[in-house]
């Protein structure tokens, strides 16, 4: 008969594998569905931390790469030894062997995760003070002689290509008293300073004749932006220096670099250039990871001003110093990441909640399907521990291989990232999948019983424990929302941290933004489940008086829904809330970028020149593809209002066209008539003599009262910013233009914004009141759809700069941290929506056998197929409508409640150049994100109910009746 298989108490025979295999063969569809669910969930859960690692690491590396090498490199400098050192000892420390030895010891001092890039790091010696060159053939912009920096830069042959001549060499053992050395210059230095191969440049020496430096070669940098050259740009590119003089013409002179052979470094000691040794360490971007950000900041601090610097001083010089701005780069990156992480965590927590609910529902569906079997086993003496252990093993046989497969899929889909995090999340999902069925069986079959009581909301009342749990969640959600709103109103946005230290920014584990939407969805689900049956029961009574039993029966059945409705409703509300919040975030990010680009340019495109534009240019631009309207502007940035010396930008416009532009862009719309000039405004030259006639005086004190009394010509109406209006009020005042002419204006319109300028100070007047020269257009504002940048630049030629709003918008996405976070957010919201649909399907599948049996019985009583379809649709409609309306309202409430504490600036506008105006990156409700998912839930629920009724009507009634009798 085979082996015994008992479920008895302690001491009985343990279960064996053949029984588990038999149970799996009995329900292969359930096992396959569970495997697919676990595989998909593990794949998503394991890929999430790896995707975050990928875009955070990419963002950190790009932040370091984008920062100039002068900022990101660590420069260690030390002077030659002075006290107690002989000339030979001072010369020996500058020789390549000594510098190389110290360079290797400094690399050993550097603490991980800070790793130096050996290809871009170098060392050498140079003069810290430039030396005046006596050669008169060197360029002298203002008569001052050029100056030279002497540097013995190690690795010149590996980092430069020889363009002419040969690399410098050191003949014999060079000392400080050498009369002549060889050097090379870069192509930029040679072109700008007119240096050729064979040129000799003399620089001062100490106590002897000038040192002669013969140029033997001209080299071109292989990577001019690499740290080898860019850390000390003077070695690559000469610069024009300006002396601080009070004369009308500034005193300028050239400073270039002469690159000596490393063996010739001791000659620097014979010059008054204050020579110093240097070791420049370029960080290796490939070794930087965002997870090591606190340790990386500590390593930089230790080398810059901590124990690392003390160790460097032990073997170099007590006056050695280290400098870098890499810590500032890390702080900026940490601030950006701290603003993005809470928003991404919203989608992560919401999707994780929905996934957990779906796994619980899958376990509950399996437990309900096998309830008679498990109850019979308990009645025959099976122990609760043995039963749950057997169910755990049975589930593990399916879940563990599926989890391994899902983990492998995640590793293939996201090949970069930490394996440990992915493995732990995969293990957590597999453990939950294995435990859901045994846990449900443990709760359901603690007491031995064959027939269970009814479990619907009409008969089962919430327990005290459930009430306490719901009140606890309500308190937590309320506290989270209150704290978040309070933080937002006090100016501490959710996306910023108070400390500039990367370590403190990384450790600010504030997850209020992340948890609040999920808690709001949980509370809404619990409240709606409690209130849901009440209106249906009240509607069932009047529906019973109507003709036909379909309406009354559907309302009665919907009002006596199962207690387990809380799980699918929780999944749907959490998913809908997360989708609404996520859609609002993504829409807010897109709108913020559009608004910021519009504030910067003032239109869909902007064409501007330093001087007046060609007269034929507006007509050429109007004929370009996609251009709808062209608004010419004359902008003067140096206008001086009143009697002061401060300047205010003044814009001359055509009132009609400019008013249309302001109305279309919503940047300070105004009536065109408020800006039209009534007559010709007074204009006079600043150089006019006093006897040129009355009314032409440029004295502000004389002009103001005359115009105020109306004795002079009418002042120009002006549109002004609030700051300018506060200073000058509504009385007429003079404005001196850039061509030294003068007009009189009176502020009639005050607006915070205007399309022409993005600053806080501006004046806008009618061009008709300006002189001929000030009225000539210097800028064109373009509106239209799908503007062709190439065509516009071709039409504008080289006389003007063309800026497109689309190109300006693209500049705001300058970090993989932003784009990666958006992609992860989108995938997480989409996955949460998919799990919500799956939860809805599981809920309908759970009730499918009962509904099929009900339809079969009713058909024997005369119910038609059409009535059966209406019955199932009407029965599913209240729950679907509850989820749809509740999800939309919950999402709307979550966005409105959390908006004051959410700042989208970090995600939307992580671009240097100043903070955006208030409200540019604020969170607003998105109607599409609120309504579209809710309507989808409603359509899916009713569609499945109608499909089930249609399928049941096509099948016979015998099987359904037997299934109903067995229940």
Task: Lay out the secondary structure.
Layout: H1 17-26, H2 28-66, H3 69-72, E1 74-78, H4 87-92, H5 96-109, E2 122-127, E3 131-132, E4 147-153, H6 156-159, E5 160-165, E6 180-186, H7 187-193, E7 200-203, E8 211-221, H8 227-230, E9 239-243, E10 251-260, E11 275-281, H9 293-305, H10 307-315, E12 321-323, H11 326-369, H12 371-379, H13 384-413, H14 419-444, H15 464-489, H16 502-506, H17 512-531, H18 533-544, H19 550-559, H20 566-601, E13 605-608, H21 617-622, E14 627-641, E15 648-653, H22 655-665, E16 684-685, H23 700-709, E17 716-720, H24 722-728, E18 733-736, E19 741-750, E20 763-766, E21 779-784, H25 789-796, E22 801-804, H26 805-810, H27 816-860, H28 865-898, H29 905-908, H30 927-954, H31 958-966
